[in-house]
Input
Amino acid sequence: MNKSAQAQAPPPLSTSELKQKRATTKLPGEEMTIAETLRVMDVAREMREQRETAEEMFRHDEVRVRLREKLMRTAALSGDRVTEAEIDAAIDQYLSNLHTYESPKPGFKKFLAYCWIWRYRIATAAVAAGAAGAWFLL
Output
């Protein structure tokens, strides 16, 4: 092999040259605008909140144990004789139905809720009907 073909290492820098090179080197994000800085902070905050949510979800067993202990203490204070198996079954049933959707039963309250949801459409239709009625009466 030819010695001239081999890569040559650059000569070592002196301390003053090294300090000067560091001073002129720009780090990524060093010249960020305020909007960019705020955007980065928003991303960091969102990541923290998502991490906390994930950690809370993974502590499901811990929450279940604390709930069982609390229910056992409550049952003992109220004089109810329940076993841990019954408490566990009740917790299982509660958690299985915790986030399920049930459509509302038909009735007047449901009618009022839909009227509130469609209030702008109803108001527009009422104004249009009133205008049409006034037009025909004139």
Q: What stands out?
A: The CA atoms of residues 66 and 72 lie 10 Å apart. The chain has six helices and no strands. The chain has a mean pLDDT of 85.
